[in-house]
Amino acid sequence: MQLLEERILKDGIVKPGNVLKVDSFLNHQMDIEFINELGKEFKRRFADAPITKILTIEASGIGIACLVAQYFHVPVVFAKKAQSLNLDGEMFTSKVESFTHKKVYDVILSKKFLGPEDHVLLIDDFLANGCALMGLIDIVNKSRATLEGAGIVIEKGFQEGGKKIRDMGVRLESLAIVDSMTDDSLTFRPNN
After folding, report:
1. How many CB atoms lie within 10 A of CB 21?
2. What is the pTM of this model?
3. By C-alpha distance, which of 81, 163, 77 is closest to 121?
């Protein structure tokens, strides 16, 4: 998606360790009009899928998922990274290792929000090694819902996550795929 690639080149910052900071517009400070355009693009790419729920993981995916969900007219459900007092009833759980935080989380989703009748679209900001998506796929499988696909804003194509997810047969749509990243340059893979 040309608009996204241009914004990454303009405002993204490459940090050591293959970290791409896009916090000025995507996942700390959010440019709502811009993310709204991303939501329209995900709707265009998944227009043929009978989506009933958008599923993401806290925290960075929530805002993006909300703007995507408005085009599908469906609720957003998000897996939480910590147990809290207001979580009750039976839960789906999965383990997820965060690339950025170098930490393993038990992600939790109440069973009352996802079931066999649902058709799920996963949405997240980044795909690096695929752990977050694998955890969400595990939750969808445990719920017996139908996984319609995954929408990622930025995929790091030089890491294994995208290949791993595609090899599982999951329909994966990434709006921008970074092919290579150095301190002073980024290259993108041609992408529909």
Report:
1. 14
2. 0.92
3. 77
Tens digits of per-residue pLDDT, 118-145? 999 999 999 999 999 999 999 999 999 9
Query: Binding site: what residues are annotated?
Result: 20, 27, 128-132, 156
Q: Which residues are annotated as a binding site for 5-phospho-alpha-D-ribose 1-diphosphate?
A: 128-132
- Would you list which residues are annotated within the binding site for xanthine? 20, 27, 156
Residues whose CB falls within 8 Å of the CB of residue 95, separated by 6 or more in sequence, listed in order: 104, 105, 106, 107, 135
58 near 37, Cβ under 8 Å?
A: no
* Residue ranges of domains in the chain: 2-187
Q: Amino acid identity of 113?
A: F
Residues 6 or more apart from 137 whose CB is under 8 A from it?
Answer: 122, 147, 150, 165, 168, 170
Place of tokens 């017996």: 144
83-101 tens-digit pLDDT: 654 566 688 989 887 766 6
* Domain range 2-187, its CATH number among 3.20.20.80, 3.40.50.2020, 3.40.50.2300, 3.90.1150.10: 3.40.50.2020
